[in-house]
Every structure is written in structure tokens, then in C-alpha cells.
């Protein structure tokens, strides 16, 4: 049995050394380190938080929009989408209603992929690329995607090779682990590959104590003495106590800050920052700029151009 496995392994080595590739070899161009940030679903924090982070560092990102959610509570409006595009962001389709495309009939997939594109285009937006909801796709979905889009992105937690399937661009989710995110950037640089990160709403979570009163959904939060500001979204829980979630708007909330709700007047003490995605994303861009000035931060469409993909 072991001998058989060895035999198969040798066969594999011979075939891979022969330079035989079943992938589209016309897409081979060059390999260079690229990083792309995509924000899925069309959350309003693409505009209220991410746009500022990226423009302050002279960079742009991508917003993948589910068209049925536009103008909904917590989601982007049409003028915000326009402003993102005017600032150099790429707007991608993330379907019409965010289904698992693998579970739909061909005509349903066709409708999701075509209508989302035409809806965005009717708003004056340029839409060339697609993000599959839940990162789920298959051969049938990819075939329909080819009719309307230049590429499609799924997950996979892999870097993209210079020989790639443009209807299966691989990406990493931005997790609450900054050092791990930086190690992916290190790999993209050393292997000269395209790293695509995806994220959703940009929020922060803090452990709190000494709470007085109840914060109100959507109210502004003031942090003193740090001077930071945020927007309250939900209460939460962490190991050994209560927590709150909020959208970080400006400044950096610090331990021992007193948090005050503008409308409710409720207060609490900030014990520990569990995570602050605004600061993490800011750190990731700074890390690229200071450690790897040769890495280009690009939109999906620009990345495809640089990879020499039609
Ligand atoms: Zn999504």
C-alpha cells in the first residue's frame, strides 16, 4: 500500500515538473505582490469609516453591494456609493438578494447576477466584478458569471497565483488577529502573489464595567479622556462580563475611558478593547507602506489588469 502511494506521488511529481497546466495558460503574465481590500454586503461603514481610513493613507478599496439592501438601515445609500466610486473605489456586485447561488436554478442565478449589475449601472455605477455570497460558487454559477462579469471572488484562504481562475479569486477573511493578517501580507510579498482580504461592517468591541443607564441604538458615544467618538450598535458579553459593540468614528478609545451616550446619558467605564477593526485595518495599510513599499494596494479590476488577465 505504501509503495502504491509512493508510486502515485512520483507520478504526480513527474506530471507537475513537466509544466503541464490545465488552467487557462493565456492568463499567465507576471507575478507581483498585490493586496486588495473588499468590503462585502454594502454596509454604511464602507462610507462612514473605511473611506476615511483608505483616503487618509492615499489608498482605495472595494465595496461589494447586495442591491436589495441599498438604502436600508445600516447600509449604503446611492449618493454614498457614487461618492465611493468618485473617490476611486471599485463597486462590485454581491447579487440582488444575497442567496447561496449553489442552491438556485440556472434561471434564478441568471436573474441574481444580471439584475444586480443592471440595477447598479442604472445608478451610474461601473460594475465589472462579482463577489459570491457566502463565498459559494460552482461550475454552473461560474459559467453564468462569465456572461456578465470579468471575475468572481470566493473565499478559500489562499493567495492568488499568477495562473489563476478569475471566476474563483481566492480571499482571506479579516479576523480579529492582527499578527496573522500581517503574516499573510508577508507571504504575499515573499511569494509575489495577490492577496485579497474581505471584511464586512467595521465595528469595535470593548469590555465594560460600572454601567449606568442603557445606551440607545444608533446614538453617538463619547470617550473621555481619549476624545474618541463612536456610534452604539449593540450590547454584548465577553468572558467575565458585559461588553458593547460600536462603530468607531474618530480617535482611538482607550482603557479607563468613560463612555457617555449622547442621547441616553448612559455611562460606563472602558475596561479593555477586545478589538477595533478601524485601527486594525489602519495598521495593516501602514504595515504595507512601511515594510513593503513595493506592494501595490489595488482594486479587483486593477489587480486583474496587473495580472494581465483579459
Ligand atoms: Zn455577503
Structurally, the number of domains stands at 2
Q: Provide the structure class.
A: alpha/beta
Largest sheet: 8 strands, parallel
User: What is the succession of H and E elements?
Assistant: HEHEHEHEHEEHEEEEEEEHEH
What is the C-alpha radius of gyration, as a whole number of Å? 22 Å
**Helical fraction:** 25-40%
Spans of at least 5 consecutive residues whose pLDDT stays below 50 are: 3-28
**What fraction strand?**
25-35%
Give the helix tally. 8
CATH architecture classification of the largest domain: Alpha-Beta Barrel
Mean pLDDT: 90
Number of strands: 14
Features:
globular, Elongation Factor Tu (Ef-tu), domain 3, binds zinc ion, disordered N terminus, 310 residues, TIM Barrel, 2 domains, alpha/beta
Amino acid at each position: 500500500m505504501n509503495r502504491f502511494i509512493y508510486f502515485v506521488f512520483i507520478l504526480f511529481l513527474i506530471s507537475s515538473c513537466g509544466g503541464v497546466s490545465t488552467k487557462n495558460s493565456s492568463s499567465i503574465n507576471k507575478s507581483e505582490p498585490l493586496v486588495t481590500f473588499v468590503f462585502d454586503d454594502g454596509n454604511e461603514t464602507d462610507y462612514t469609516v473605511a473611506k476615511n481610513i483608505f483616503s487618509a493613507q492615499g489608498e482605495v478599496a472595494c465595496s461589494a453591494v447586495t442591491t436589495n439592501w441599498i438604502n436600508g438601515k445600516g447600509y449604503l445609500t446611492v449618493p454614498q456609493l457614487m461618492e465611493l466610486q468618485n473617490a476611486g473605489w471599485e463597486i462590485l456586485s454581491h447579487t440582488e438578494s444575497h442567496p447561496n447561488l449553489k442552491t438556485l436554478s440556472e434561471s434564478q442565478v441568471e436573474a441574481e447576477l444580471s439584475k444586480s449589475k443592471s440595477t447598479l449601472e442604472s445608478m451610474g455605477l461601473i460594475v465589472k466584478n462579482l463577489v459570491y455570497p457566502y463565498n459559494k460558487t460552482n461550475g454552473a454559477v461560474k459559467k453564468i458569471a462569465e456572461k456578465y462579469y470579468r471575475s468572481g471572488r470566493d473565499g478559500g484562504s489562499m493567495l492568488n497565483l499568477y495562473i489563476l481562475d478569475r471566476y474563483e479569486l481566492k480571499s482571506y477573511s479579516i479576523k480579529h488577529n492582527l499578527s496573522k493578517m500581517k503574516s499573510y501580507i508577508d507571504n504575499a510579498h515573499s511569494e509575489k502573489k495577490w492577496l485579497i482580504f474581505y471584511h464586512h461592517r467595521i465595528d469595535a468591541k470593548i469590555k465594560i464595567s460600572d454601567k449606568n443607564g442603557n445606551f440607545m441604538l444608533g446614538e453617538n458615544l463619547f470617550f473621555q479622556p481619549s476624545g474618541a467618538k463612536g456610534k452604539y450598535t449593540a450590547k454584548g458579553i465577553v468572558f467575565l462580563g458585559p461588553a458593547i459593540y460600536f462603530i468607531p468614528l474618530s480617535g482611538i478609545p482607550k482603557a479607563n475611558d468613560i463612555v457617555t451616550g449622547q442621547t441616553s446619558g448612559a455611562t460606563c467605564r472602558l475596561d479593555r478593547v477586545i478589538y477595533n477593526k478601524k485601527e486594525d485595518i489602519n495598521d495593516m495599510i501602514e504595515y504595507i507602506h512601511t515594510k513593503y513599499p513595493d506592494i501595490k494596494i489595488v482594486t479587483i479590476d486593477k489587480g486583474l489588469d496587473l495580472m494581465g488577465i483579459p
